[in-house]
Amino acid sequence: MTTEEVKKAVKKEKAPVRAQDLTVDPASAQMIERAWDLEIETIFDRAQSMKPCNIGVQGTCCKNCSQGPCRLPLPKGGVEGKDTRKGLCGATAETIAARNFARMVAAGAAAHSDHGRGVAETFLAAARKETHDYHIRDTKKLLEIAPDFGVEITVQGENGEVLDRDIDEIAVEVGEAALAQWGQQQGEVCTAKRAPAPRYELWKKLGVLPRGIDREIVEIMHRTHIGVDQHYENILEQCSRAAIGDGWGGSMIATDLQDVLFGCPYPVKSTANLGVLKADHVNIVIHGHEPLLSEMIVQAAELPEMVELAKSKGAHGIQLSGICCTANELLMRHGIPLCGDFLQQELAIVTGAVDAMVVDVQCIMENIANVAQCFHTKVITTNPRAKIASGDTIHIEFDEHTAFEDAKKIVRTGIENFPNRSKPVIIPDEKSDLVAGFSYEAINYHLGGTFRASYAPLNDNIINGRIRGIGGVVGCNNARTVHNEGHLTVVKELIKHDVIVLTTGCNAIACAKAGLLTPEAAKVFCGPGLAEVCETVGIPPVLHMGSCVDNSRILMAAAEVVKAGGLGNDISDLPAAGSAPEWMSEKAISIGHYFVVSGVYTVFGVTLPVSGAPVFENHLYKELENIYGGMWDLVVDPYEHAQKMIAHIDKKRKALGIDKARERVLFDMAARRDLEAA
Ligand code: XCC
Ligand code: SF4
Questions:
Q1: Cα distance between residue 525 and residue 518, in whole Å
Q2: DSSP 8-state class, residue 56
Q3: Which residues contact 329 (CB under 8 A, 6 or more apart)?
Q4: Any residues with CB less than 8 A from the CB of 168 and at least 6 apart, and which?
Q5: Nearest ligand 2 atom to alpha carbon 65
Q6: CB 489, CB 473: distance < 8 Å
Q7: Going by CA atoms, what residue is nearest to atom 3 of ligand 2?
Q8: Cα–Cα distance, 252 to 590 (Å, whole number)
Q9: Quick check: CB of 475 below 6 Å from ligand 1?
Q10: What would the pLDDT profile of 363-384 be if each residue is shown by its tens digit?
Q11: In the predicted model, what is the mean pLDDT of the chain?
């Protein structure tokens, strides 16, 4: 279908679609319209012209063997009497939905964990000094994490005195121990012990501690082959092992080692949205997930020879920016601006200003190659795992041993393409200020100060009721729903009700564009209690904690809050809830599940492919709470979505006996305001 045909089809079906019906972000709307004018098809058009399969969305289509696909839609109004739906082999709707769910967990955990493995390999190469391009930078963090990997940081001297061990030796041992977590066959992934003790003991009792990161993923693939695991509860138990292996394993180790290699993030200012592109600069947009690549590109783009080359081509300089989680990684450590979120990758190219879009892995839409062909933009793939057949992309392979040279080649390709701009450059004006870089260490410092760094002040403010609770809001964009509307409604509703928000991924980018990542946002959007805390401490009400693998930072923050005391003994006791209002990727399902089994009530928006299997659905939404203290939920309406999170937070406050405190503090504030007014 051409864009014209799409527009016609859409018009015939209902009222004409306007760009502002597809996104709440004005910059994106402007570029969708430009794409229409230029007859360039984007995901926004295809989402109108192609509807999802109505059995697939229920999670009850099985194609795990060639006798299928066996399709088991739920009858309208539900099953009457006994559910007799079966695939050819006899698999029930529950088995099929659970298997499909499990394969999403496997793919999501594999994506994060394979990323983590790459980081561990590079870390080890750096520790062993086999590469000159990467170095052990954050030795403080190295010493903090080493004991979790069973690596001693001191030795006993001859006279019994305690001596510091050599940093290089520690780094090599940490790298080896970390890398071993993937292929380990027995025992448990060592970082799972970072969970609060009751949580860890619960996992042990339930037998869901992951033995090795890869092993649990492989076992999901085995169990979901035809004729193996045909009990939805047992299948889900394996999901729990793999998901813990992701959140408390592969993802967490990725975050740890990236921090040691590139520095632990601390608060940093920057800007977000398509308006960060510059008409008179070479624009290199880096898109994907792995900082191994983007860190080198940052260094290469800063070289005087590169800046000179750009000038010789008529540009004023080089503007780097990011899309998706690479954007978050670059922002957190270097303050490099966010160009856009997942649904803006094509739209960035539609500006006509992007000289190179450099991609690595995950969330890269094949269609960017087609959109790029309508402009001069060069799409450069860099990872042997991720090539693109559409369009005419270039592949410049990125290797950890020649990383800096590879990065220079990539930057040079972008610069040399600057004179080839073929269409007028139209860059939307929108760009918003932001503060990001809230690693869990940074929050510690920010709240408590250098000399008494701790989460205690946060806990105090939760206990006294100024802060009602904590919301972790994360995840993707989804072309099946209005771009950024769910994200912004949920987050604004939470902070309005004094819930502080921790964010990562594309939700963080949506919040950044809407100006929610500034301390000033507190006055405008927050309830009185949260506003007061933010103003006193000087933090935004929405704390940007990084990329999708950095959801492990949210887990660590939750564990720290438990440790700081006064809010129960486990994550499931905390007045906290999780959310992914516009999720779409399989990674989100793995993340959702590790939050649930960590004890968090986790609400997804848009859809969840389990509605065709009511018994399995009930297991996810209800029964899991009795096992883990956390459970899944699906709430499509973003306003209600936030209300359910708030209700859960209030339920937990009540259980902790701190519900009254909140009433008091709000009364005090109202009284004080009245006094001031009088
Ligand atoms: Fe991808 Fe990580 Fe989702 Fe955004 S949020 S669309 S996974 S980039 Ni994690
Ligand atoms: Fe059908 Fe069973 Fe094969 Fe699935 S595994 S496609 S339900 S026969």
A1: 11
A2: G
A3: 258, 289, 290, 291, 294, 322, 546, 547
A4: 127, 129, 136
A5: 3
A6: no
A7: 65
A8: 13
A9: yes
A10: 999 999 999 999 999 999 999 9
A11: 95
Amino acid residing at 566: G
Per-residue confidence band for 668, with pLDDT thresholds at 50, 70 and 90: confident
End-to-end CA gap in the chain: 66
Residue 184 and residue 122: Cα distance in Å, rounded?
19
Residue type, 561: V
- Determine which residue's CA is closest to atom 6 belonging to ligand 1: 476
Ligand 2 center to 57 CA (angstroms): 17
> For residue 36, what are the CA distances in angstroms to 31, 32, 313?
9, 6, 31
Which candidate, 480, 489, 509, places its Cα nearest to that of 274?
509
Instruction: Give the C-alpha separation, 501 to 508, whole Å.
Output: 10
Per-residue pLDDT of 528-560, as tens digits, reads: 999 999 999 999 999 999 999 999 999 999 999
| Angle, CA 435 vertex, CA 648 and CA 493 arms, to 5° | 30
- Give this prediction's pTM: 0.96
* Alpha carbons 313 and 2: distance in angstroms, whole number: 36
For ligand 1, say whether the CB of 342 is within 6 Å of any of its atoms: yes
Q: Which two tokens stand for residue 481?
A: 């729903």
Residue 474 in contact with residue 504, Cβ under 8 Å? yes
Least-confidence region, from 28-37, 125-134, 231-240, 442-451: 442-451
**Cα–Cα distance for residue pair 507/604, rounded to 1 Å:** 13
User: Per-residue b/e over 547-566, b at no fewer than 16 CB within 10 Å?
Assistant: bbbbbbbbbbbbbbbbebee
- Residue reference for tokens 């058009």: 45
Phi, psi of 303 (to 5 degrees): -60, 135
DSSP one-letter code for 60 = -
Task: Report residues whose beta carbon is within 6 angstroms of any ligand 2 atom.
Answer: 62-65, 67-70, 87-89, 91, 96, 226
Please state the length of the chain. Answer: 678
Ligand nearest to the CA of 103: 2
